[in-house]
Design brief:
Largest sheet: 2 strands, antiparallel
CATH topology of one domain: Arc Repressor Mutant, subunit A
Number of helices: 4
Distance between the termini: 23 Å
Shape: globular
CATH class of one domain: Mainly Alpha
Number of strands: 2
Protein backbone atom coordinates (compact mmCIF):
# COMPACT_ATOMS: atom_id res chain seq x y z
CA UNK A 1 0.00 0.00 0.00
CA UNK A 2 1.24 3.47 -0.79
CA UNK A 3 -0.30 6.82 -0.03
CA UNK A 4 -1.36 7.02 -3.68
CA UNK A 5 -2.93 3.56 -3.82
CA UNK A 6 -4.75 3.61 -0.48
CA UNK A 7 -8.39 4.45 -1.07
CA UNK A 8 -9.54 4.63 2.54
CA UNK A 9 -8.52 4.28 6.14
CA UNK A 10 -10.46 1.02 5.97
CA UNK A 11 -7.62 -0.34 3.81
CA UNK A 12 -5.33 -0.09 6.84
CA UNK A 13 -4.99 -2.62 9.62
CA UNK A 14 -7.01 -1.65 12.71
CA UNK A 15 -3.89 -0.84 14.72
CA UNK A 16 -2.56 1.41 11.95
CA UNK A 17 -5.89 3.22 11.85
CA UNK A 18 -5.80 3.62 15.65
CA UNK A 19 -2.30 5.08 15.36
CA UNK A 20 -3.41 7.65 12.79
CA UNK A 21 -6.35 8.70 14.95
CA UNK A 22 -4.06 8.91 18.01
CA UNK A 23 -1.46 11.05 16.25
CA UNK A 24 -4.19 13.36 14.91
CA UNK A 25 -5.81 13.71 18.35
CA UNK A 26 -2.48 14.49 19.98
CA UNK A 27 -1.66 17.03 17.25
CA UNK A 28 -4.97 18.74 17.89
CA UNK A 29 -4.35 18.96 21.64
CA UNK A 30 -0.75 20.24 21.55
CA UNK A 31 1.43 22.74 19.75
CA UNK A 32 4.23 20.17 19.42
CA UNK A 33 4.21 17.05 17.26
CA UNK A 34 3.63 13.93 19.37
CA UNK A 35 6.51 11.64 20.22
CA UNK A 36 6.30 7.85 20.17
CA UNK A 37 5.89 7.53 23.93
CA UNK A 38 3.03 10.06 23.96
CA UNK A 39 1.27 8.06 21.23
CA UNK A 40 1.82 4.87 23.21
CA UNK A 41 0.44 6.45 26.41
CA UNK A 42 -2.61 7.75 24.53
CA UNK A 43 -3.41 4.31 23.13
CA UNK A 44 -2.59 2.46 26.37
CA UNK A 45 -5.05 4.69 28.24
CA UNK A 46 -7.85 4.22 25.73
CA UNK A 47 -7.33 0.50 25.06
CA UNK A 48 -6.68 -0.59 28.62
CA UNK A 49 -3.69 -2.66 27.46
CA UNK A 50 -0.04 -1.83 27.27
CA UNK A 51 1.15 -1.72 23.67
CA UNK A 52 4.43 -3.43 22.87
CA UNK A 53 7.14 -0.88 21.95
CA UNK A 54 8.30 -2.92 18.97
CA UNK A 55 4.78 -3.18 17.55
CA UNK A 56 4.26 0.56 18.05
CA UNK A 57 7.42 1.69 16.30
CA UNK A 58 7.19 -0.86 13.47
CA UNK A 59 3.71 0.39 12.64
CA UNK A 60 4.64 4.08 12.97
CA UNK A 61 7.53 3.44 10.58
CA UNK A 62 5.21 1.61 8.17
CA UNK A 63 2.77 4.53 8.14
CA UNK A 64 5.66 6.93 7.52
CA UNK A 65 6.94 4.75 4.65
CA UNK A 66 3.48 4.90 3.08
CA UNK A 67 3.27 8.67 3.30
CA UNK A 68 0.58 8.83 5.97
CA UNK A 69 2.84 10.09 8.76
CA UNK A 70 5.81 12.41 8.71
CA UNK A 71 8.62 11.26 10.97
CA UNK A 72 11.19 13.76 12.21
CA UNK A 73 14.12 13.18 14.52
CA UNK A 74 13.95 15.48 17.55
CA UNK A 75 17.22 14.35 19.09
CA UNK A 76 19.39 11.25 18.79
CA UNK A 77 16.76 9.04 20.45
CA UNK A 78 13.37 10.67 20.00
CA UNK A 79 11.17 10.90 16.92
CA UNK A 80 8.17 13.13 16.42
CA UNK A 81 5.24 12.23 14.18
CA UNK A 82 2.68 14.25 12.26
CA UNK A 83 -0.19 13.25 10.01
CA UNK A 84 0.19 14.14 6.35
CA UNK A 85 -2.50 15.86 4.30
CA UNK A 86 -3.28 12.46 2.75
CA UNK A 87 -3.81 10.90 6.18
CA UNK A 88 -6.03 13.77 7.30
CA UNK A 89 -8.18 13.41 4.17
CA UNK A 90 -8.48 9.66 4.74
CA UNK A 91 -9.46 10.17 8.39
CA UNK A 92 -12.15 12.71 7.45
CA UNK A 93 -13.55 10.39 4.76
CA UNK A 94 -13.54 7.46 7.19
CA UNK A 95 -15.29 9.45 9.92
CA UNK A 96 -17.97 10.65 7.49
CA UNK A 97 -18.60 7.12 6.20
CA UNK A 98 -18.88 5.77 9.74
CA UNK A 99 -21.26 8.59 10.76
CA UNK A 100 -23.40 8.02 7.66
CA UNK A 101 -23.50 4.28 8.30
CA UNK A 102 -25.14 4.80 11.68
CA UNK A 103 -27.34 7.75 10.73
CA UNK A 104 -25.25 10.49 12.30
CA UNK A 105 -24.66 12.43 9.11
CA UNK A 106 -24.87 16.18 9.44
CA UNK A 107 -26.52 17.00 6.17
CA UNK A 108 -23.55 16.18 3.93
CA UNK A 109 -23.55 12.87 2.12
CA UNK A 110 -19.74 12.59 1.77
Amino acid sequence: MSADSSQSVGDLRAFERDLLYAVRALERDSENPPKGLAIKAYLDERNGDEINHSRLYQNLDRLAEHGLLEKAEKDGRTNEYATTDTAEQLLVQHAKRRANAVGLNRGDSR
